[in-house]
Amino acid sequence: MGESMTEVEYFKPERGQRPGANQDPRLNWWREAKFGMFIHWGVYAIPAGVWKGEHIPGIGEWIMLRAEIPIAEYEQLAGQFNPVKYDADEIVKLAKRAGQKYIVLTSKHHDGFCMYGSAETDYNIVDATPYGVDILKDLAEACAREGIKLGLYYSQTQDWHHPDGYGNTWDFKEEEQDFADYIENYVKPQVREILSNYGPIAIIWFDTPRIIARHQSQELLELVHELQPDCLVCGRLGNKLGDYATAQDNAIPPALQAEIDWETPATINDTWGFKTHDYNWKSTTQLIRNLVDIISKGGNYLLNIGPDAEGAIPQPSVERLEAMGAWLDAHGEAIYGTAPGPIQGVDWCRMTRKDDAAYLHVFYWPASGRLVLPKMDVSAADWLDASVDASLAVNHEGDSTVILGPAAAPNEHVTVIKLSK
């Protein structure tokens, strides 16, 4: 992931030759899905944030750059990478239990290591590791079995392993690099590989555009759409091109963003790639509220897991995702396929809508049990969670609509009330 791009740079991409916001039918499934799983995984899971006994600041997958690890040393990690606990089926089933509808895996991150069998380099999981298995193939097959859309992250500019990629200033001299050749004769062939060898790919998730020229971004966009016309391209392709916008990492816009299609990529703790000493796990309540906040403002939530060097998913991630899935089992009607609701900018609640119903998501429940809203054309209020056994009534008082409920919140995370005419 990136660390220095601003929200504005990511947040307002142009459409190129594509239709305007919310009009391109290729995004219909994505607009319905709302919630996806990001997977940041690579050989950086071996050092897990520690190099030569020192805790390296920053996110786990950036350790090569942060510690300026020479390629000759960093390459040795591949020979140690043997993720015997990797289980593609279990990862996909976890996503399903969490209520996530699509998965995006890092096929090549900034360290240049490929998590698939690439013919363009031996620096990949099939040829350079004792594991020797194409994990992307396994994941693609598991996604197909379970009906989960598969997307792939690909770092198109930063590559600290390739002599012509951007970012490695300790092994290479910038003035001697040929970035144009890197794009033409390495990036494009690899994009062709991942879009040709693994079945339908729903999303290409490019990142940190940095020095890429407008025509290079345009050519990559056209290549993706040529190979797989339905494959979506995220806004981090660069130069304000792409099929949808991508917010800054972990950022949620302060207000409704209904004029564009957009997504927030986010972590469950502080890092993307696995770090042994990152224990700053967000609570289940915070994650559910982030999901609701994003959906109520018109976006999607792409929430990350970072498997360890053996391929196991950290248990705190599993616990939180399963808890989110349990909440969605009862409240998914108010999330999937919804649009932003009519009430915006209120601290204690969020609102979504679908067809003739509006869904009130209550973050902070008043001790009085009185939920005071602006006047709405509403005659009925019902708990979305059918297991809630408490009275609920609607009154209209002057310029307000008042929902009368119990003194305590029926749900510990977010309580949802369905409002209808």
How would you portray this structure in words?
By secondary structure, this protein is an alpha/beta fold. The protein folds into two domains: 7-334, Glycosidases (TIM Barrel), CATH 3.20.20; 341-420, Sandwich (Immunoglobulin-like), CATH 2.60.40.1180. It contains ten helices and 18 strands. The strands form four sheets. It has an eight-stranded parallel beta sheet. It has a five-stranded antiparallel beta sheet with strand order 11-12-13-18-15. α5 packs across α6 (135-146).
Keywords for this entry:
five-stranded antiparallel sheet; eight-stranded parallel sheet; Immunoglobulin-like; 18 strands; TIM Barrel; 421 residues; 10 helices; alpha/beta
Strand arrangement, largest sheet? 7-6-5-4-1-10-9-8
* Major sheet description: 8 strands, parallel
CATH topology (level 3) name of the largest domain: TIM Barrel
CATH top level of the largest domain is Alpha Beta
- Give the count of helical stretches: 10
Count of the separate structural domains? 2
Count all strands and give the number: 18
Q: What would the principal axes of the Cα set say about the shape?
A: elongated
CATH architecture assignment name of the largest domain: Alpha-Beta Barrel
The named CATH superfamily of the largest domain: Glycosidases
Return Rg in Å.
23 Å
Instruction: Kindly estimate the percentage of residues that lie in beta strands according to DSSP.
Output: 15-25%
Average per-residue pLDDT, rounded, comes to: 94
Task: Briefly characterize the structure.
With 421 residues, this protein is α/β, with parallel strands linked by helices.
